[in-house]
Amino acid sequence: MKIFGIVSCNIHVNFTNYGSALQSWALCRSVGNMGYVAKLVDYCPKMMEDRDIKNPMKHMWDTDVNSRRNLDLSLPAIRVNYHKFDTFYNQRFKKTAKTYFCKNFNDIVSDEHIDGFICGSDTIFCIDEWNGFEDAYFAEYPCMKGGYAVSYAASFGDAHFDDATYKLLDQKLNNFKALGIRENKMIPYVKEHTSLPVFRTIDPTLLLEVKDYEEITAQKIEKNKYLLLYARRYNKKMFEYAERLAAQNGWKIVDISLRAENEGKHRMAYDAGVEEFLSLVRHSEFVVTNSFHGIIFAAQFRRPFVAFSRESGDSKIAEILGLFGLSDRLLITGEESFEVNVDYEVVHSRIAEARIESLNFLKMELDNCAAL
């Protein structure tokens, strides 16, 4: 059977990310469901080579004193969380036997018998996040350029290109045999500047149904009713909104964020592993988040939610809400009105339609590689 290397941001990041782990797991699962072998590539991007998971301050975006103080307070939870993620990657995946860097990446084909590469999902095309073009994410290594590589649900995020970087982008996109792009925003440009098949493809976490996630979801953790507050970046208005809503309904707040100063008034849960995160979403009364994948799993588990604006994340958040037909649930101030009840039959029918198209794209590209 053909073996496909899954290349994305997941293991080697400054802060663990439920979405990064679960999109990789879902893509591997989807490839396996099509009769091929998916192998998660343990790849360390250049900018992560000097990271220290026990002290992520060096690569932290936030520079204000309070955010950094909260990071220090969160270090015990960060370390527990890291070990849970490490277990998830080692137990839930077929993974490469060793870690690959820029210096040894071209050994991977002979080491792991890789037949083709799938780059994605996540914001692998966002040059702002990776201090430029990350070679593995653009299939730039000779073994990828000279072989078979496609992107699946690759995202540009809120990347900023100028004339020089647009020219480089055009060159690097042509390393692929086909391009699956997660958001519509850049698709017209990509179609104009490449001769490749280009499709909009949904995030891999939406390729699977909720029953697939139930297999890895932890048992119910909280006995009392709670609101889940999941923040990828601190947003004062979002936290205030969550506290108002919880108080109005008599719910406690389970808080997955680096805002450790909330200990005492919130039940802090940054130490939750992937399986525990799924459980916390599934059993919540309401989800308040500025996470792209927080939105997705609220929808997967049919939980009421609102999403808040987030620096560097607004484009992808707006697009996923548009796909669900729930654009009114993107809040800026927390004072906006929106339809309280979600018709999840309609939402899931929209997801199912998009799922068929994306699975067809993925299977077509895997089959094309297998036919070579």
Mean pLDDT comes to 96
How many helices does DSSP assign?
12
Helix and strand composition category: alpha/beta
CA-atom Rg in angstroms: 20 Å
Poorly predicted sequence stretches spanning 5 or more consecutive residues: none
Give the neighbour order of strands across the main sheet: 2-1-3-4-5-6
Number of strands: 12
How would you characterize the largest beta sheet? 6 strands, parallel
Account of the protein in words:
With 372 residues, the chain is α/β, with parallel strands linked by helices. Helices cover 39% and strands 13% of the residues. The chain is built from 12 helices and 12 strands. It has helices at residues 18-33, 65-92, 108-112, 142-145, 163-173, 187-193, 210-214, 236-249, 274-282, 292-300, 314-324, 344-370, and strands at residues 3-7, 37-40, 116-119, 149-154, 178-181, 198-200, 226-230, 252-256, 267-268, 286-289, 305-308, 330-331. Strands 2-1-3-4-5-6 form a 6-stranded parallel sheet, sandwiched between helices. α10 (292-300) packs parallel to α11. The chain is globular, with a radius of gyration of 20 Å. The model has no long low-confidence stretch (mean pLDDT 96).
